[in-house]
Design a protein that fits this description.
MetI-like fold; single chain; about 0% strand; mainly alpha; globular
Length: about 280
């Protein structure tokens, strides 16, 4: 048992406070920059106290009324595009992975292990290796600047398939036999038993994949050429087009704040399920 001493408790709290300050200070600085005019931000030293233009800057960012040299696309549209990617990708990944893991564990068919390892081996291929052929297929199908082109190539997930397979293998055989005796077919067993049992793992994967989809940069950068299909991450990069004095840093920082909110809200609202899902996965 670890003995609690005042000195060790004080040191632990000091380390935590320093860590929180290091993480929170850039976020606070972003908030401060989003509350001032652009001319105030580029002056040295930059003020560390919030200004009075926060609401105006947020409105200018959301409605796209800024006059900077970079992209002036409405951030509201960018948030919608990013939200669609961040929702479609995790739902697609989880659905495909659940079904593929269910088939691999509970069905008998030729070369079952071969197909599983073929899926698993794709973990060794980074995105950059297959991004060229994937782009060619998407372009040939006419899916550039579409939600289908943004999301479908990101849906398949060997990691999620492997995690669900490992979980399904821990389900007792007696439960399968009991379901069969009760007259439950494969899909009813999958829907009424396996999915409820996997709820915490599904929640943990949803949080991870939501952030993965929200932060997508390389793939949207390749297949989006119209401002109306920019996700928020691409939008921030396209806003920066001139020198420090030319860019409207107040609008850029307001956009960065808006980009932080959805992932933070998802993590905070699903924190209990996320942690429980990781702990259950370890078991």
């Amino acid at each position: 048992m670890v003995e609690r001493r005042p000195i060790t408790t004080a040191i632990s709290h000091l380390v935590l406070i320093i860590g929180i300050a290091i993480i929170a200070f850039p976020v606070y600085l972003t908030f401060v920059a989003a509350s001032h005019e652009a001319s105030t931000i580029v002056q040295a030293p930059m003020p560390l106290v919030p200004g009075t233009h926060f609401v105006d800057n947020m409105d200018a960012a959301l409605l796209g009324t800024s006059t900077g040299p970079g992209s002036t696309a409405p951030v509201g549209r960018m948030l919608f595009v990013s939200l669609m990617i961040a929702l479609i990708v995790p739902f697609g990944k989880i659905s495909v992975s659940l079904l593929s893991a269910f088939a691999i564990v509970y069905f008998r068919f030729p070369f079952k292990n071969f197909f599983f390892w073929a899926i698993f081996v794709t973990l060794m291929l980074p995105v950059e290796v297959r991004i060229g052929p994937t782009y060619q297929v998407v372009a040939d199908l006419g899916l550039l600047n579409t939600f289908a082109g943004l999301t479908i190539p990101l849906i398949a997930s060997a990691t999620a398939t492997f995690l669900f397979r490992q979980f399904f293998m821990t389900v007792p055989d007696e439960l399968v036999e009991a379901a069969r005796v009760d007259g439950a077919g494969p899909m009813r067993f999958f829907k009424d038993i396996l999915i409820p049992m996997s709820s915490t793992s599904i929640a943990a994967l949803f949080v991870i994949q939501f952030i993965y989809g929200w932060n997508q940069y390389l793939w949207p950068l390749l297949i989006t050429t119209e401002e109306r299909m920019y996700p928020i991450v691409i939008g921030i990069q396209r806003m920066i087009a001139g020198g420090d004095s030319a860019n409207e840093w107040n609008i850029i920082m307001a956009t960065a704040l808006l980009a932080m909110l959805p992932p933070a809200l998802v993590v905070l609202s699903m924190q209990r399920w996320f942690v429980k899902g990781l702990v259950d996965a370890e078991k």
